[in-house]
Amino acid sequence: MAHTETSGTNRRDFLYIATGAVGAVGAASLVWPFISQLQPDQSVLALSTAEVDLSPIAEGQMVTVQWRGKPIFIFNRAPKVVETVRAVPLSQLIDPQPDQDRVKSGHDNFLIVVGICTHLGCVPIGNQGNYEGWFCPCHGSQYDASGRVRVGPAPLNLPVPPYTFTSDTKIVIG
Amino acid sequence: MEGHSTYQPKGKVARWFESRLPLVGLAHSSAVAYPTPKNLNYLWTFGAILTFMLVCQIVSGIVLAMHYTAYAPISFARVEHIMRDVNYGWLIRYIHANGASMFFIAVYIHIFRGLYYGSYKAPREVLWILGVVIYLLMMATAFMGYVLPWGQMSYWGATVITNLFSAIPVVGETIVQWLWGGYSVGDPTLNRFFSLHYLLPFMIAGVVGLHIWALHHVGQNNPEGVDVKSVAKDTVPFTPYATIKDMFAMVVFLMFFAWFIFYIPNYLGHSDNYIPANPLATPAHIVPEWYFLPFYAILRSVPDKLGGVLAMFGAIAVLAFLPWLDTSKVRSARYRPMFKQFFWIFLVVAVGLGYLGSKPAEGGYVIASRIFTVYYFVHFLIILPVLGLIERPRPMPASIADAVLARGAKGATASGAKA
């Protein structure tokens, strides 16, 4: 060192703080693009609605359609089946929810749920298990005709995707 | 234990180079002059076997990547293209696929050797923890590699394992979406897994470098578990003694490996993975690769989703705390009569969990996995800490040389000369 500093701060201190501050902000703002690129991209988002015609689905029939790469179960339930699931007291359920909240009123026969087991993501098999609904082959969870979990290890009911009836026989999912 | 390198460059060029970068001297001190305990048995050859397996996986993997394409609609067909069209593609793929299993067989022997002889105890805690890190990286690499053929097991294995993270409260769903790059396992997932599957082996190689550095700094443990007291009496130079022994063991291991490649290449795989991935149908009985089965059994034995995931990761994490959970100062099970029994019980429980993981989750299998899971944790969290306090170790030899000579004398009377 050619000379000794006498004052508390000097040019190097200023450069140290300024460089550090700009560098930190720069690094932080670069982190976001690298995280954001992990999220679903525009081509994936573009597939985020699906239109389904319900008229060919007969009473008692279960149909699987695809939305966002996921299976969606559409179940045209017989009136007796609807009565059965509505008669179950909520206290018996693992994830209590009345059947009325899981369908659109006026279309009570149509149950539309995401066909992915809420345990670890397998696709449950229809018309199996003891509750007129689905049975998951991976770890044995069972769902009733309202898509509600009745036997674990799944913690939650099959989720209802966002959908609307555009006419009496057509729905748009997403 | 610093190696006593006697390396003196002879030629003029070698001297010139050595004074600028002492590379040859480093190789000499760590692989030629490095003193190894003279009583090491064949269980100590698995470090070299594992290093070889890492190189084998990287070389065969780089070649496979030259013929593979990570794009969901064609990846399955590309793997079949490797199997049918590429010259010797079948061989290279079978080397790589079975190589993963051989890697895990070797690492499990290596880990259980460490457990038996107390290789995790002071001063080898960091060495041990680096080993746990390598094991975790190996599991991540193997899992992502299994996704690449894009068969049914690839797809549904990826779905189940990535969904494990959804059990994390609050941020779980977001993390899963970041892993997927979509709303389910799909093409973006396949691409990022391929990228990471190529990266992680080089990270393993880096941590292996640290692992070997730590090993050479503190010195190898040995079957007697006593420290090296005299380099002259207790050790032999790495070359030729350990080098030849490691190479011999490696060749025997390669014969075992070759038997799988040429005679039963699909024995350890699952036939469902020869069905292209179908996002709308889960196979009736999905199981992970055999080397994950004990942890899969632990996951399934807990009836709660988050609890199961925590137990599974906890079963691996507990290994990192082992140096402090085992309160005994005596390393080798040879001098720990009670620990020895519990070691074998633990081995049976660990293998038993693997068996249970391959069975459907129902009836007696579930009850058995629950009992075994509880025992797994009891072994680490209760038995090992308590054992160190109540166990009376057997008298230990004064030095490695003493133990070798005593054994030699016994062997000589029993079965003639024994090296």
List the helices and strands and how they pair.
The complex is a heterodimer of chains A (174) and B (419).
Chain A: H1 11-36, H2 42-45, E1 50-53, E2 62-67, E3 70-76, H3 79-87, E4 110-114, E5 125-126, E6 134-135, E7 142-143, E8 149-151, E9 163-167, E10 170-173
Antiparallel strand pairs in A: 1-10, 2-3, 3-4, 5-6, 6-7, 7-8, 9-10
Chain B: H1 12-18, H2 23-31, E1 35-37, H3 46-65, H4 72-84, H5 89-116, H6 125-147, H7 152-164, H8 172-180, H9 187-218, H10 231-234, E2 235-237, H11 238-263, H12 293-301, H13 305-320, H14 322-325, H15 337-357, H16 363-390, H17 400-415
Antiparallel strand pairs in B: 1-2
Helix pairs in contact in B: 3-5, 3-9, 3-11, 4-5, 5-11, 6-7, 6-9, 6-13, 12-13, 12-15, 12-16, 15-16
Shape of chain A: elongated
Greatest interface: A-B, 28 and 33 residues
Helix content of chain B: 55-70%
Structural class label of chain B: mainly alpha
Radius of gyration of chain A: 27 Å
Strand content of chain B: under 5%
Biggest β-sheet description of chain A? 4 strands, antiparallel
- As residue ranges, the low-confidence spans of chain B are none
Any idea what the radius of gyration of chain B is? 24 Å
Mean pLDDT of chain B: 92
Average pLDDT of chain A, rounded to a whole number, is 84
* Distance linking N and C termini of chain A: 69 Å
Structural class per helix/strand content of chain A? alpha+beta
Number of helices of chain B: 17
Oligomeric state as shown: heterodimer
Strand order of the largest sheet of chain A: 5-6-7-8
Spans of chain A of at least 5 consecutive residues whose pLDDT stays below 50 are none
